[in-house]
Amino acid sequence: MSGISKATILSYYVRTLLRRRWSSRSALEQWQERRILRHVARVREASPFYRDWWKGIRDEDWRSFPVIDKAIMMENFDRLNTVGIQRDEAMELALRAEHTRDFQPTLRGMTIGLSSGTSGSRGLFLVSPQEQAAWTGTVLAKLLPRGVWRQERLAFFLRANSNLYESVRSGRLQFEYFDLLEPLELHIERLQSYQAGVWIAPPSMLRLLADARRQGRLTARPHRLIGVAEVLDPLDREVIEQAFAQPVHQAYQCTEGFLGATCSHGRLHLNEDVVHIEREYVDRQQRRFVPIVTDFSRFAQPIIRYRLNDLLIEAERACPCGSPYVAIEQIEGRCDDLLYFPAENGTMLRPVFPDFITRAVIGASPAIEHYHVIQHHPKSLELRLQVHPESAEEEVRAQVGVALSRLLARMGCCLPVIHYSPYMPMARGTKLRRVERRFPL
User: What span, in angstroms and rounded, lies between the C-alpha atoms of 68 and 240?
Assistant: First the structure.
């Protein structure tokens, strides 16, 4: 790619993405199959780990390859990647960047990044310059309605910056990095002067900015809001959309790839033109599944049949946009955030999905402004609430208790002891999880 301007490269990738059209779901799947088979053959030759992992299984039977996850990837990092980078040297560079907040250095031309580690362990990712350009082109094509051909200012709110994100800065696009570890008032001051048209941030940050706008401390207003990195809670969505008088779009982006984006109708779709996602159903009737990802565009650190820890709900009906890509009703959270309560007959623990808890809590009273549900034990639940100042908190607590009691009774579960405490905002740079379990099974 030497000698070619970044803007030209990005324009190529954007145009390629926008030109891709399939007449049917079947045509898309046939195209994916051809791409995956070519990719698998290259990876088998270049990655010692995958060569051994797939031993005795033909490329054509790639759906039978054993699944990997973050633990397996990190344990075999040195033999899995195809560019000869060792885990220790990559981790050293990534941790130094986290400490100094200087995310520019690369390792033998590779961008190195570190996942947030909300699942208990931190993962490393490697991205080559070509993959970086392809990722940027995909982001621009799917998230920015004006593309790369019009002037645009972007405000990226991130826990950690990266060359990957900086690559969005090019040509007519201006990019500003907003460090989530910085104070909110500094962000407000910068937004007022920068006047970005697109704000990309975790929903918890968008909620803080929405509150600031409602209080008159923030007057800047973008024409597009994009939530990333966290689950978009229904309560936060309502507040954000009312404050800015526009919908919140979503980007399903994680260490393992850019997996989804909202369409013109506001529906989240899987990015099946760059990744293949198998649906491992945990509740087929409710359309809940865990995604198993095969990224057929990523070679430096191949991601093939990689099981995520996320819970997704498939849309019940086809999206009116007409896209053949699978539509997602909701990213519900992580599998680790399934709550478990004793069954009424006392013989076992029964799982309860986070979304059920969310809807019971926020549906109990319109006075609830913030909430955080933490399960410390199957028989103990902590509920942190912030209610409207003019509302009686004891009354709201009673309403929530009734709503949770009805939900769990309907599911055949015993009601736990509920401990109420004041709501505490998450520390800066920490992912917001409205519903979480803090005990191992």
Answer: 37
